[in-house]
Amino acid sequence: MNEILKIISKDTIEEYVKDGKRTDGRGLLDYRNIELKQGVIKSADGSAWIKLGDTEVIVGTKFVVGTPYPDSPDEGSMSLNLELSGIASPDFETGPPSIASIEYGRVVDRVIRSAECMDFKSFCLVPGEKVLMLFIDCYPINAAGNLIDAAEIAAVAALLDTKFPKIDENNNIIQGEYVGKLEVNKIPISITFEKIAGKLIVDPNDKEEYASDTRFTLGIHKDSILACQKSKAGSFTEDEINYMIDVATSKYSVLEKVISDANDNKES
Amino acid sequence: MSGENIRGDGRKNNELRPISIKLGVVKSADGSCYLEWGKNTVLATVHGPRPIFPKHMADSEKAVVNYRYRMASFSVPERKSPVPAKRDKEISLVSGFALESSIYTEKFPNTVIDVDTIIFSSNAGTRAAALTAATLACADAGLPMKGLISAVAAGRANGDIILDLTKDEEDADDAVDTACAVLMPQKEIVLLQMDGFVEKEDWKKMISAAMSGAEKIYELQKKVLLDKYPLEGEINE
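^ Those are the sequences you sent over. The predicted structure of the assembly is below.
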């Protein structure tokens, strides 16, 4: 977005939020429209595409054979990456991963990892020698705000779509052949808040992100907290944190349903 | 949080590990602080405000706070590569935001304040230790500040809600670790990071435990500053 437009819209956004409104007509705690579809990338082991307002992200998963970590010789692992490439926004530069892409990726990784929604022991091929490592790669294709939550929802949908690879007698993956599905036993959700003019909103668009002083992301499963990240300069009071915890847990079932509905529709 | 239960190292649930602090340990820096916190040792230095290079990194409205969190290769049991990992970069980013909120950066447009922290030995809670030292190094450098950053971790291990986890406690099966940095005396939360799996009401108790822990850290920090820079009369908060 053009610099001067950002500055002009910041003032307008602050005025609206002070009155409990938003420039796109939403309430402070309303989400934009969400479209979610699994199985969009045939070459991946699992995939999903999300459109959250104008923000779009594609996530694909791939199993790779690797060696286990010394402290967990009978367990495989997961690794999540998020790449902010020049495709998604004129503000992103091509090149080595930016600090923002590292932070976003690590926050989404922590939410999913803390949910312990996969059995890493089932990823073991030869204890101490060979395990499956699951790579979850997130590619934003249009950055229009709230990439963290969009990537998180799409990543979980991609996991639910992931098929388990067929393994040959030498414990290598036979590409393109599968034996059943990856078991995902929980659906973790992330909910990101921005603080504008002293008020808290969810699902910020890109103009609201620019207008915001402070960000807070919570990873949620039902009434439990999985992860959190406070980012940007600025601060929250303890009361504001407690308020966001209550709002986030109350939003869990709505967002969980978005994912499970997309998953059910694919199977029918 | 009960103050009664005794932990592996003999502490009560709401008790901090021993902390000792020394200011002005690096002569070439504008400000510095060496801090020992249990088995953590950390050195923090401040250089600046000074000209920023490359110039396009400058902010015409305020100083850029360039915070670096690094772990020495020998700070952990198995040697760590000295190349900063994603974790180091992420901690540097959010800690920099936290520290920035305590400094009147708008007084120094088009400059950079470089804040470097190195963990020489680590035993859980290093990002809190680094920030606690860094804010003192900023004060030692004479930067104009709104307050101090008082940081500490709180969480859960072996069923108890506890303050200031050790590595052993962080490795417990039910461990929850919440790193918290607070701008004091305003009591504003400027860093909050956590992973675990915890019922929300329990987590609120951990945040509250971290807030009381931060007040204890703040008292220590004030004492260290007043020892080196004594004031006449009453402190006005």
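Chain A has one domain: 3-267. Chain A touches chain B at residues 99, 102-103, 105-106, 110, 113-116, 216, 219, 221, 223-238, 241-242, 245-246, 249 (CB under 8 Å).

Shout if you want it in another format.
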